[in-house]
Amino acid sequence: MLITSLLVAALQQEPPAQPLPAEAPPGSQVDSPLLRRVDLEDWRAHLLPGAADLRFAQIAWEPTFMDGVRRASEEERPLLLWLMNGHPLGCT
Fold first, then answer.
1. What is the tens place of the pLDDT at every residue in 5-47?
2. Structural domain boundaries of the chain?
3. DSSP the chain
């Protein structure tokens, strides 16, 4: 019953007045921004990490939890436990 109601509602809607860019016929020109060399350099500077973003790499991270506990205990410092779900590089 729900599916029938949804189908009837979808069929009663009017089609869009202009085709979407994805629906443009092959061979037709679609207005798209040009990627210039200047724009590429701006985007690269915006997307690549800066020195402030890479500060975490200067910390002497311990490879195992127990190594970290041992070092924190020896230096009488707090321990940061960083947990995550999945592969650290996003490779699944």
1. 666 666 666 655 555 555 555 555 556 666 677 788 888 888 8
2. 61-86
3. -HHHHHHHHHHHSPPPSS--GGGPPTT---------HHHHHHHHHHHS--TTTTGGGGS---SSHHHHHHHHHHHT--------SS-TTS--
> What whole-number distance in Å separates Cα of residue 74 and Cα of residue 62?
14
Angle at the Cα of 64 (from 60 to 66), degrees rounded to 5? 105
**Can you give the pTM of this predicted structure?**
0.36
d(CA 44, CA 10): 43
Contact 71, 78 (CB under 8 A): no
CA distance 21 to 76: 62
